[in-house]
Each structure stands twice: as C-alpha cells, then as structure tokens.
Specification:
The chain is built from no helices and 16 strands. It is an all-beta fold and 287 residues long.
C-alpha cells in the first residue's frame, strides 16, 4: 500500500483459536511507519475464565493473577527484573466483551506514603478457553508471550461444615500499601504478597508450605525467589525462607494477617506488622 492507504485482508472462514501474526515487509530504501489495525468477530460461546493465579506453562515460578471487581478486570503480574529479583506490574480496565483483554502495564513505586504509577508497557490476555490463556506483553521495549494455566481449582475448602470462599485479591483497604493474591481450597492454600522494599521498589514474596498444605493452617512460611526476566536467558530459579505470615479470616470479605520477614540481600526490607484486610475482588462462586 502507499499514500496512507494500506491493504486490507479479510478472513471470513472459521479460524481455530490461537496466535496469528501480521508480517510486514518494507521494500523501500528508507524506514517507513505503519499502523496495523485488527477487527475480530466471534460467534463462539461466551467464556468464563478461571479467576485467581495463573502460572506460566514453562514453569519458571512466574505468573499473573486474573480477577475482577464489578465491571472491571485487573491483573497483577508477578515477574522478575533484569537482575533476576522479584518485581511486579499491574494492569486494569473494563472487563472484556470477547476473549481478548488489552491494558497498559504499570510499574508502581512507593515513597513510604504514596503510590506512584508509570506506564511500562502493554499486556494482552487471549483466553482460548476457561483454563487456557496466552499472555502477550511489551515491557520496556522488549516483547514476548507465554501460555498460562490455572495454579489451582476454583473450589472452596470445607471448614466446620461450611464452604467459605476465601480465594481472591486481598489488601489493607488503602491504595499504595500492597496486597496479596490469595488461594484457599481443600488441598492447599497460598498467598503471593506484592509490596515494596526499603527503596520503594516493587517486590513480591510467596506464602506456601510444602509440609503443611492444610486449608486451615494459620501460619505459613514466606519464600523469596530469585529467577530470570521473561525475555532473558533461562537460569536456575532459587528461593529462601525469609519469614512467616499468620492469617485469619473473619468471613469471606474481612480478616487480618501478620507479616514478619526480612528480605535476603541484595534486597533491603524488614517488616513486622499486623494488618486488617478486606477482599477487593468479587467473591468467587465455588465450582
């Protein structure tokens, strides 16, 4: 195409779910700018994607939470920076009408009081089914994609004759002070806490216990991971126990946790405090 009017391509027949690419070729002797626009229509049945934590299929102890509150959806991406240290990004926007959701990726810092957000890239989630999604991302000029699968089932634990729905996104009720992706079902429980180190840099730690997977355990070890960034050469992922979290749920929307940890070098942060917490995300309807 030329003169600002490019070619168009219509595919009207059935196209299998997956990833498709537009390949551009510039035959001129100088650089040229191009804009690609895609319109997709689907008559497939509406999806109801899994809520909670999703893991990268390549198994690098990295993943993202997918959740909703009202008519908005949000994601917290638990990743590693270019030094292999844990970091996180957030994205939010109107819930998808179809099976594709696109939003800005925000890097968040904290000066001890206020949360500062800066756009760092863009993320796209393409749901192939309720339990299959491809996460595509452009971050700090680097691009990649990863298929993901749910970390655990959307079921609720049976506790004292009831089935409370604790799985969801919990926080202190104050913006800028971090929070946690919480999973609780019969076989196990876990928490991924996103927070800030002493320099205000976003970090995360995992509350998980291989020796006690009970849904009713109130004390869970906190683990700090070292890994490699999504577009970096794979390296061995290591972890260390850095503290403990004690949690208590009053009901499906209210509770508390006590964090007690000291991050391993080169990170610098020591926290010992008790927080009153509330659930931010919609209450999960147990399967």
């Amino acid at each position: 195409g030329g003169g600002g009017e490019g070619p168009s391509l219509a595919i009207n027949d059935f196209v299998a779910p997956g990833r498709y690419y537009v390949e551009l070729s510039n035959n001129a002797g100088s650089a040229a700018a191009a804009t690609v626009e895609v319109q997709v229509q689907s008559d497939a049945a509406a999806l109801s994607p899994h809520k909670g934590l999703w893991d990268f299929d390549r198994g690098i102890f990295q993943g993202a939470e997918w959740n909703s509150v009202g008519e908005f959806s949000f994601s917290v991406w638990y990743a590693y920076d270019f030094d292999g240290q844990p970091t996180w990004y957030i994205a939010s926007g109107p819930s998808p009408v179809g099976n594709v959701w696109v939003a800005d990726l925000l890097r968040v810092t904290n000066d001890g009081t206020d949360q500062q957000e800066k756009r760092a890239g863009v993320v796209s989630l393409t749901f192939l089914s309720d339990s299959e999604v491809v996460m595509s991302y452009s971050l700090f000029g680097e691009s990649g994609f990863d298929p993901m699968h749910p970390n655990g089932p959307n079921t609720c634990p049976q506790i004292n004759g009831s089935t409370p729905s604790y799985t969801g996104h919990w926080y202190r009720g104050v913006a800028g002070l971090g929070g946690s992706t919480v999973l609780v079902y019969n076989a196990a429980q876990a928490q991924v806490h996103y927070l800030f180190d002493a320099l205000g840099v976003p970090r995360w730690i995992i509350a998980a216990d291989d020796d006690n997977q009970s849904a009713t355990a109130t004390e869970i070890p906190l683990l700090q991971f070292d890994g490699f960034c999504s577009v970096c050469t794979p390296e061995t992922v290591t972890f260390d126990t850095v503290g403990i979290v004690t949690r208590g749920f009053e009901d499906e929307s209210n509770g508390s946790w006590t964090l007690d940890f000291v991050l391993d070098p080169p990170l610098d942060q020591s926290i010992e405090r008790t927080d009153t917490i509330i659930k931010l995300s919609d209450t999960l309807v147990c399967e």
